[in-house]
Amino acid sequence: MVLYSHSRISTFRQCPYRFRLRYIERIRPEIEQSVEAYLGSTVHATLEKLYRDMRFQKLNTLEELLKYYNTEWKKNWNPAILVVRKDYTPENYRKMGEKFITDYYNSHKPFDQTKTVGLEQRIVLELDSQGKYKLQGYIDRLAIAPDGTYEIHDYKTNSSLPLKEYLEEDRQLALYALAVRKNYPNAKRIKLIWHFLSFNQDVKLEKTDEELEKLRNSVISDIKEIESAKDHPTRKSALCDWCEFRSMCPEWAHITKTEKMSLKAFLKDSGVNLVNTYAELTEKKKQIESEMAAVRDRLVKFAETSGVKAIAGSGHIARVWSAEKFKFPGKNDEGRAELEDFLRKSGLMKDVVSLDTFLLSAKMDSTEWPQEIKKAVARFGRKERIDRIYLSRKRPE
Q1: Coil/strand/helix, residue 394
Q2: pLDDT at position 18, please?
Q3: What pLDDT shows up at residue 393?
Q4: Are 191 and 150 in contact (CB under 8 A)?
C-alpha cells in the first residue's frame, strides 16, 4: 500500500512525467535542490529551533537565531544547488533569509501567544473507512491558543503573496486539519495560518466540515487517477525552470545539453543545425509567400483589365478565378455564439455539420436554402472577395 503525501499528489497534477521519474522509477536527479528550496529549509530549521528551545524555557535572542541560521547555511551549502535566477547570487538569498527571520522575530516576540504542541510533526491520515487510502505530512508547527483553538502554522518563503481565494483552494493545510481533528478529539476549532515571510504577513483561514469532507473525496479521486494512469505525459509550465529532471525530460533534454556546450560543439550539433536550417527555410517561405501574393494580385488585375480569365506564360497557363463569398465568424470569433444559436433554432445546423463555416458559405451560394433564410443568415457574416490562381503546364506543341 502506497502512503501518499500532498507533495506526491501535487507532483502528479503539475507534471505526470516528473511524477513517473520521481516516484515510480525513483531516479536520482542531477539537481538535488534549488536555492529557493535551500533557503526555505534553512529558515524552517531556524524557526524550529526558536520554538523547540522555547519548550525548554530558553528564549533565543535575535542575534543567536541569526548566528544559528548562518552557521547552518554555510555548513550545508554545496555548489550543486541550482540558482535559476542568474541575476542573483547565493549571497542574495542568504541575506533574504536573515531578513525573514528578523521580521518574524520582531513581529511575534515574546512567542508566548500560543502553546506549541508539535514541531515538524508527522501526521498520518486515513482518507477512507477501510484504510485503503492513506496520506502523511509534516506540520511546521502545531499550537493551541488560550481559547482552545488548534493552530496549524506553515512558513512560506516564496516571493509572491497569494490571493485569499487561492489559499482557500490550497489543500495541504486543510488535509492536516483533517488529521488534527481525528488525532485530537478536543479540537473543536482549527485555524490554518500561513506566515508569508517575504512580506511579513500572516493569513488565517478556517474550513467547514463540509469543505473538509469535499476535500477528502477530492484527494481520494486524485489517488485513484494516479493509480490507474497508464501514461505519464510531460506538462510544460513555469515550474519547469526549477525541475530537478530537466536534463532527462523530452521537453528540455536537448536544450539543457546544448547550454553546457562550447560554441564550437554547439554549432556542430546535428539538432542545432536542423533547427537553424528549418528556421532559415521558414523565413524564406514567408518571403516567397509575400512575393507570390503580390504577383497574384497583379495577375488578377491584369485579367480584369484585359477581360481574360487565362493568361499564357512560357511553360504554364495561369487561370484566374474570382468570387465573392460569405465570411462567417470562426470558433473563437465574436458573433459565433449568436450564429450557432440562430442555426439551431432554425433547424439548419444539420445542413452545415455542426457549423462548418466553409460548408455554410457554400450553402449561401447554392439554391438549397430559400432567399429569406439566406438573408437571415447573411447578417452573421460579411462578403469577402476571394482570388485564386490555378497554374497548369502548357501542352506541348
Answers
A1: coil
A2: 93
A3: 60
A4: yes
CA pair distance 9, 135, nearest whole angstrom: 10
Strand pairing category for 310-312 and 316-327? antiparallel
SS3 (DSSP) at 77: coil
Crossing angle of helices 209-228 and 6-14, in 10° steps, is 60
Looking at residue 82, its pLDDT comes to: 83
Quick one: which of 277, 389, 250 has its CA closest to 322? 389
Beta strand extents in the chain (DSSP E only): 3-5, 115-126, 134-144, 150-156, 190-196, 201-205, 310-312, 316-327, 382-393
Grouped pLDDT means (10 residues each) for the chain, 397 residues: 85 92 88 85 95 92 95 90 85 94 94 91 86 88 93 89 69 88 87 92 88 88 90 89 87 89 91 90 91 93 92 90 80 82 80 68 77 82 68 53
Residue range(s) in the chain whose domain bears CATH number 3.90.320.10: 3-241
307: region left, alpha or beta (phi > 0 left; psi from -120 to 50 alpha): left
139 beta partners: 121
C-alpha distances in Å from residue 139, one per residue of 6, 177, 267: 12, 10, 51
Q: For the whole model, what pTM was predicted?
A: 0.67
CA distance 190 to 188: 7
The burial class, CB within 10 Å (0-12 / 13-18 / 19+), for 395 is exposed
- The whole-angstrom separation of Cα 365 and Cα 378 is 11
Residues 5/136, Cβ–Cβ less than 8 Å: yes
What residues are paired with 126 via a beta bridge? 134
Domain 3-241, second-level architecture: Alpha-Beta Complex (3.90)
- Give the H or E element holding residue 253: helix 253-259
The pLDDT value recorded for residue 394 is 42
pLDDT for 96 equals 94
**CA dist list (Å): 162 to 167, 172, 196, 198, 225:** 7, 15, 9, 12, 28
Please give the Cα distance from 157 to 240 (Å, whole number): 19
Q: Is 97 helix (H, G, I), strand (E, B) or coil?
A: helix
